[in-house]
C-alpha cells in the first residue's frame, strides 16, 4: 500500500500512507562541503522505510544506515502483533507479560498518556473491535457490519484503564488485546534517528510509510521540504512544509475525497466501535515522530472541533486537517512551517 519513488538529482520520495501522501524533496542542489547524500529504502514493519543522510564518509554512512535499520527491526520484533514471537503477541495471548522490554514498557506508558489526554479517543486496546470488523468482512464472514449487540459486548474488552504496569510487567484483563499500529512506527523512527545521532550524523531523515522525522539542515543550509499531496490532483500539494529537527505524520482516509461511498475507515473510534468519517486526514507536526504518529490518529478520531482543541492545548504541536466536506483547517501555528515551491 505504501509506495516510494526516488528520482535522481532532484530527489523526491512519494509516500502513500493511510490514503494520504507525503513527499520529501531530499536534495535540491549538488552536495556541498564534501557531504555526500546517502539513501536506502527497505521494506520493514509492513511498510516502506527510507533512511537518508549526509555524510562525507561513504563507508561510515552505510554502516550508520545499517545500524538504524537494525534498530527498526528490533522494535518491530518486539511490537508487531503479526509476529507470534513478539512480546506484543505474547501479551495478547496471555493477557500479561513479565520481564517486558523497556521499549514495550515505554510505548505502552506513552499510549496511556495519549489515551488520558484524548479521553479514550486513542486506545491501544482497540484490537478486539478491529478483529470483530475483520471477521465480518473476511472469507466465511457475513460481509455485513457487526450488530450493535456484538459491538457492545466487544467494547467491554476495550479500555486502556484496564492495563496495569508494575515494574517491567504488564497486565490486562482476560480477552483484551493491544494494537500498536498507531504508535509503534513513530517510535521506531525516533529510535532510528537516535542511532544516527549517536553515529555523529547531523543531517538526515527517516520516513516509515509517511511517519517522518527530519534532523538538521542540508549542507547548503536549507531545511527539509515535505509536501502533503492534493488527492484531487496528482503532483499537486495541499501544503508544503519546511522542517528542521521536527517530525510529521498523517492519518486519514483519502478514499472519501473521491467517493462518498467510502464510509468505512481503517481507523475506528475505541469509544463507539465504529469507523470514523468526520475527517479525510489529519497531519501533525511535533518534536518527535511518536507524538506526531499518535496525535495524528487521535485527531482523526476526535474530529474537527475536539481534535483542534487538543492540538491547541499542546505546546510545540501543530496540525492541518481536511474535513469530509473538503475544508482545510490549520492550527494556530501551522503556517509557520509552510512555504511555497515551484511545481
From TrEMBL:
Keywords: FAD, Flavoprotein, Lipoprotein, Magnesium, Metal-binding, Transferase
Cofactor(s) essential for the protein: Mg(2+)
Annotated GO MF terms: metal ion binding; transferase activity
Transmembrane segments: none
Catalysed reactions listed for this entry: L-threonyl-[protein] + FAD = FMN-L-threonyl-[protein] + AMP + H(+)
UniProt cross-references to SUPFAM superfamilies, sorted A to Z: ApbE-like
Family matches, as Pfam families: ApbE
EC number per UniProt: 2.7.1.180
PANTHER family noted in UniProt: FAD:PROTEIN FMN TRANSFERASE, THIAMINE BIOSYNTHESIS LIPOPROTEIN APBE
Protein name: FAD:protein FMN transferase
Species, as recorded: Methanococcoides methylutens MM1
Amino acid at each position: 500500500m505504501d509506495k516510494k519513488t526516488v528520482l535522481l538529482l532532484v530527489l523526491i520520495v512519494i509516500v502513500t500512507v493511510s490514503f494520504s501522501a507525503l513527499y520529501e524533496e531530499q536534495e535540491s542542489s549538488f552536495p556541498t562541503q564534501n557531504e555526500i547524500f546517502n539513501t536506502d529504502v527497505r521494506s520493514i514493519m509492513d511498510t516502506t522505510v527510507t533512511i537518508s543522510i549526509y555524510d562525507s564518509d561513504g563507508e561510515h554512512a552505510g554502516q550508520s544506515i545499517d545500524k538504524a535499520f537494525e534498530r527498526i527491526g528490533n522494535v518491530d520484533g518486539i511490537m508487531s502483533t503479526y509476529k507470534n514471537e513478539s512480546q506484543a503477541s505474547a501479551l495478547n495471548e496471555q493477557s500479561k507479560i513479565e520481564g517486558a522490554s523497556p521499549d514495550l514498557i515505554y510505548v505502552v506508558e506513552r499510549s496511556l498518556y495519549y489515551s488520558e489526554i484524548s479521553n479514550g479517543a486513542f486506545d491501544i486496546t482497540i484490537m478486539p473491535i478491529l478483529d470483530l470488523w475483520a471477521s465480518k468482512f473476511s472469507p466465511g464472514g457475513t460481509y455485513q457490519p457487526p450488530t450493535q449487540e456484538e459491538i457492545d459486548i466487544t467494547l467491554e474488552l476495550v479500555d486502556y484503564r484496564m492495563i496495569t504496569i508494575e515494574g517491567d510487567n504488564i497486565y490486562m484483563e482476560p480477552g483484551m488485546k493491544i494494537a500498536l499500529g498507531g504508535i509503534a512506527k513513530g517510535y521506531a523512527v525516533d529510535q532510528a534517528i537516535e542511532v544516527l545521532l549517536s553515529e555523529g550524523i547531523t543531517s538526515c531523515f527517516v520516513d516509515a510509510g509517511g511517519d517522518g522525522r527530519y534532523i538538521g539542515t542540508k549542507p547548503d543550509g536549507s531545511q527539509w521540504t515535505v509536501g502533503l499531496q492534493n488527492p484531487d490532483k496528482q503532483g499537486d500539494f495541499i501544503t508544503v512544509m519546511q522542517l528542521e529537527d521536527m517530525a510529521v505524520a498523517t492519518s486519514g482516509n483519502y478514499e472519501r475525497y473521491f467517493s462518498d461511498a467510502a464510509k468505512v475507515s481503517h481507523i475506528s473510534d475505541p469509544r463507539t466501535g465504529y469507523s470514523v468519517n468526520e475527517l479525510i486526514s489529519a497531519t501533525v507536526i511535533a518534536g518527535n515522530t511518536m507524538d506526531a504518529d499518535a496525535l495524528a490518529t487521535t485527531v482523526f478520531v476526535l474530529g474537527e472541533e475536539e481534535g483542534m482543541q487538543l492540538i491547541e492545548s499542546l505546546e510545540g504541536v501543530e496540525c492541518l486537517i481536511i474535513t469530509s466536506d473538503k475544508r482545510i483547517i490549520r492550527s494556530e501555528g501551522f503556517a509557520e512551517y509552510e512555504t511555497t515551491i515551484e511545481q
